[in-house]
Amino acid sequence: MRNAGIILCYQDIDDKWLDILEKMNIKNIGIHTLYQCGGVSGLLEWLEEEKTKKLLKDAEIRGFNYTFPIHAVDYLLPRRLFNEHPDYFRVNKDNTRTNDWNFCVSNKEALKYVEESSYELAKKLNQKSNHYEIWADDSLNSYCHCDKCKKYSPADQNLIISSTILKGLKRFNKEAKNSYLAYQDSLDVPNLKVDKDLFLEFAPIDRNHLVSISSNDDRNNKNNKNILDKLCKVFNKEVYILEYYLDVSYFCKWNRANAKGLELDEHVLEEDFKFYDKYNVSKLYTFAGFIDNEWINKYGTLDLMKYSNSIHKYFIKDINN
Description:
Layout: E1 3-9, H1 15-24, E2 28-32, H2 39-47, H3 50-61, E3 65-67, E4 70-71, H4 73-76, H5 108-125, E5 131-132, E6 134-135, H6 154-172, E7 177-182, E8 198-202, H7 219-234, E9 239-243, H8 248-251, H9 266-276, E10 281-287, H10 293-299, H11 302-316
Parallel strand pairs: 1-2, 1-10, 2-3, 4-6, 5-7, 7-8, 8-9, 9-10
C-alpha cells in the first residue's frame, strides 16, 4: 500500500494542522526538529509537555500515524565527550580531529556508544511504527578521513551509522527497521553489504525544483535520477521518497523571518509523481517546515490542497486509501 506523508517541525504542529491533514487525506506525520530549534533534546522536552501528550493522543484517536525523522548523531554521541574521548570523533579533510559532525566509524567504542544511545532514544520516542528514520548529521563534508575510515566512502560511512543505530533500535523493538538516508554527501550507492532491515530514503535536496526530476535537460535532476536507479537495485525491497515540495523552511534557507508563500507548479508535481510511480515506493513524504499558524493565516491552504490533489491523482491513485 502506498502512503503520503508530511514532515512538520514540532513547534508548528497543533490541532489546526490535524484538521488540514484530514482535508488533505494524509494520515502520516513526520515530527522533525532543526538544530536551531534545540535538536533532538528540544524535541524530547516537547514530547514531555502535557499539551503535546494531549495533541498526540488526539492525533492517534483521529487515525494519524506519526514518526520522528531526525538527524540525531549529535545527540547519540554528545560533542562534550570530545575532551575525554577525542578518538570517538572524526578527522576532517584538513587532517584535524574535530567534534563538529558525525564521528569516526572505525572506532569500536564510539559505535558501542551510539548503539546504546539509540536504544535509549527509542525508549524515549516510543513510536508505534516499526519504521524509524534516525539519521546521521545534516551537513556536507561531514564524514571521517582518518587512516582507517578513508577507505569508506561517505555512503559507506552513512550505512555504518544507520546500521549501528538500527542495532540499538532493535534492542527496544525487535521488528524495527531504519532508513538509509540518501542525502547530501551520502547521495550515492554504498559498497558495503546492506542490512535487510535498512530501507532506502531518497532525499534529492540539490535537485532543481522548478522542473521535474524526470527531466534529462537539467544536470542535477538527471544525476539524482541516475543515483535513484542505482540505489533501487541495492535497496530493492522498500523505498521512501523524501521531497521538499511544501518546505517553506528550505525555500527561505531556514530563516523563519524570510518565510514566503509557496509557488507550486502542478505540471512539475504531475511529472514527478508519475516518475516516482515507476519505483517500489511505499511512502512519499514532503517536508513542510515553518508552516505555522502565522503562515497559514497569511497564505492560506490552497497550495496544500493543490499538492494533495496531485499526489492522490498521480501517485496514490486512490483518494480513499
